[in-house]
Amino acid sequence: MHPFFANLRARAGIVIAVLLLASVGSVLFAGMTGSVPIPLADMPAALDELLHHRADSLAATLLELRVSRALTAFVTGAALALAGVMMQALLRNPLADPYVLGISSGSAVGALAAIMAACAAWVIDAAAFAGAVVISMLLYLLARRDLRGGSAAEGGTALLLLTGVILSSAGSALISLMLAVAADNQVRGMVFWLIGDLSGAPLRLLPWLVLGAGLLFALRSARALNVLALHAEAAATLGIRVGALRKGLFFCSGLLTASAVTTAGSVGFVGLIVPHACRFAFGPDHRVLIPAATLAGGAYLVLTDTLARTVIAPQQLPVGVITALIGTPVFLYQLHRLRK
User: Fold this and answer.
1) What is the pTM of this model?
2) Under a CB-based contact definition with an 8 Å cutoff, are residues 286 and 293 in contact?
C-alpha cells in the first residue's frame, strides 16, 4: 500500500477513535450531571445495576433516566449532522443545512396541528413525520429535474433550492397562523416544539435504524462524493452515477431530518456548524468527514442538552435555545476564517 493511503487510514482511524471515546464520555457525563449529581465513586455500582436490568438505588434510577435522554440527544444530533453533510454535498453549498429545503416546516405543520387537536404524543410524532414526508415528496415532484444527471451533474440546484425556500415560507405562514389561533394553554408546548426540546422525547429504536441506514449509504457513497465535490462537471464521465447519487442524498437527508425533527423538534445549527467544524478540523475528505460529523454531532447535542437542563436547574431550557446561542458566534467565526 502506498504510504499516503496508509497515513490517511491511520489518521482517519485516530480521528474516529477519539470522537467515539468523546461520544461515550459525553453520555456518561450527562448521566452524572444534574440537579442531583451522581458522584464518580457511585458510577460503577449504578452501571452494574443497569447492566443487570435493575435500578434499586437512587444513583441507578437517575442514571437510567439521564442516559436514556442522552442517547436520544445523541441519535438526534448525529442524524442532523449527517443530514447536514449530505445536504451540503447535494447542493454543493457549505451554507446549506438540513432545514434549507423546508422539510422541518412540513414536520412542524403536522406536529402543531396534532397539538392543537389535543392528540396523544405518538400521534404528534406520527403527524410530524407525515408532514416531513409530504413536503419531501412534493419537493421531489416539483424539482426532480435537479436530481437527475445531465444539468444536475454540473451542480445546477437552483430549482431545487428555490422550491424548498418557497415551501418553507408557506409552512412558516401556516405555523404563524396556528400559533395565532391556538389556545393559550397550547402555545407554550407548540413554541417549545418549534425551538427544539428533548425533555419529553422517549428513547426509541426507529431513529437509530434510520441513522444506521443513512450512515451506511453515506459511507458507501464517500468516494463518489469526493469526486462530485472536486470534479462536478466531469463526474459522470469518471463513472459516477450522478442522478442516482443525488436522489440518494436527497431522500436520505430528508429521512434523517424527518426522524430528528420528529424526535426533538426543530433543533437549529447542529446540521450547519458541526459539518463546518469537522471540515475545518479534519479536512474535506468525506471518508473521514462523514463518521466524524456523525459522532461529533451526537456528542455536541448531548452536551448542549446537559447544559440546557442544568444551567438554571431545576427549570429546564429548550435545547434549541442553547444550540442557537452557541452556534451563532461559532458560525460567524467559521465564516471569518473562511473569508481569510
Assistant:
1) 0.91
2) no
Place of cell 452536551: 303
CA distance 108 to 89: 25
Residues 246 and 235: beta-carbon distance below 8 Å: no
Nine cell digits for residue 321: 435555545
CA separation for the pair 56, 50 (Å, rounded): 9
What type of residue sits at position 213? A
Helix/strand/coil (H/E/C) assignment for every residue in 21-50: HHHHHHHHHHHHCCCCCCCHHHHHHHHHHH
| Cα separation, 323 vs 22, whole angstroms | 19
Location of C-alpha cell 449532522: 81
Q: Write the DSSP string, 53-72.
A: T---SHHHHHHHHHHHHHHH
Concatenate the DSSP letters of all residues of 72-125 into one string.
HHHHHHHHHHHHHHHHHHHHT-TT--TTTTSHHHHHHHHHHHHHHTT--HHHHH
Which of these, 23, 33, 97, lies nearest to 327 by C-alpha position?
Answer: 97
Block mean pLDDT (10 aa), the chain, length 340: 58 87 94 86 85 80 90 96 93 82 90 90 90 90 70 58 88 92 88 86 92 95 85 65 86 93 90 90 90 96 94 86 88 73
